[in-house]
Amino acid sequence: MRALSSLRWKIALTTTAVCCAVAAALGILVHNVVARQIVGEVRAKAEADLDHALGHYEYGTSHGDVDVALDPPDLPGPLRELVARGDTGSMVGSRGDEPVMWAAGPADDQALAIWIPYGNTRDRLRDIDTAILASAGLAAGVVALAGLFLAGRISRRLATTAAVARRISSGDLDARVGFPADGDGRDGGGDRDGDGEDRRPARSRDEVRDVAQALDSMAESLQARLEAEKRFTADVAHELRTPLTGSLAAAALLPEGRPKEMINDRLKALHRLTEDLLEISRLDSGVERAEPAQVELGRVVRRAVAASGHEATVRVLRDTVVLTDRRRLDRILANLLVNSHKHGRPPVEVTVEGPVVVVRDHGPGYPPELIEQGPRRFRTGDPGRGRGHGLGLTIVVGQAAVLEIGLTFANAPDGGAVTTLRLPVGRLPEAG
């Protein structure tokens, strides 16, 4: 969400910066055009008055109401040098403390100069510049607000899409963004003649909607594939269960000896695999429901470890009463102990501290992909670390979800796999 908010502000700031740049360019252009026009008018009047004054000077007549003087001391140096070369010209300068527009020309080796007040013209140019700056600031503010509003809409839609993507990644495959296909909730036509070609009229492209629709399509495809895999797993397990039961019964009738032991061993392994598949299919279907009860966690863990038949050291640092389904918790602990003895090395330690149970071995630890992504069925990571189908830890994850147990997989700094269970603490609602 922070990244999306940053995108929102980046879009708004970029829009504002572009608006300011355009306003600055237009302001400079308008200033130059208007200033050239206004100053040109004053310059033209000054040059006309100069021509009038030179004519009067040549005929020795009065100059009328024009301010004129020969070689005035305030005449700007550049204009004086221009007149000395025999040319006429004009420029903005000052006479005393007042800004004026000077115009001067040669007259008997002297500079005949006239001047026109320039203060009002300068004030007018400043007023125009102020108006340009105010207009640019107002435009930038309006564009910034509009950009912030539009960027907010985009970021909200992206935030919705990101939230749905996180829900899908956490296992909620029913989550959908649900943006309408054409932005207004209508279907908009589509393939009317059945030839597979979209006949809808062209509409403006909406990339955010395209991403959302692609995410929804991906979720639907993924959900369909997973549902097909779940049905296949359940069907295979159910189909195998009956012949396996018969095979086990038939194997019991074989004469004692090594062949019977090998057949029973393989049949029992296949039977356990089938039962695991059935359990996973029930967990995947969401029909499993816990029957919580208040139990003393330390005592339950000791009994579960003892009943598992696998050697492990149990330490109860601090016992507490938790709300859980004892049968399912036994299943979780048994699978963790089996995994520790199969893929790890002794000693295996089980520690109880309050509502937290930690199971640790001293083997090579969990594969990095298991820690990052969680257990995956029929995948155990490094083949050299031992055989397996990856179902035990998958069942642990499923049963922990049913019991609302917090589950984390990690490796100890000095080696060994560490599995942490955080059980919910609470009380059953009182009857009546």
From TrEMBL:
GO terms for molecular function: phosphorelay sensor kinase activity. The chain crosses the membrane at residues 131-151. It comes from Streptomyces subrutilus. This is histidine kinase. It comes from the Bacteria. CDD domains: HAMP, HisKA. Residues 235-427 form the Histidine kinase domain. Residues 152-227 form the HAMP domain. SMART domains: HAMP, HATPase_c, HisKA. Pfam families: HAMP (PF00672), HATPase_c (PF02518), HisKA (PF00512). It catalyses: ATP + protein L-histidine = ADP + protein N-phospho-L-histidine. GO terms for cellular component: plasma membrane. Keywords: Kinase, Membrane, Phosphoprotein, Transferase, Transmembrane, Transmembrane helix, Two-component regulatory system. Its EC number is 2.7.13.3. PROSITE patterns: HAMP (PS50885), HIS_KIN (PS50109).
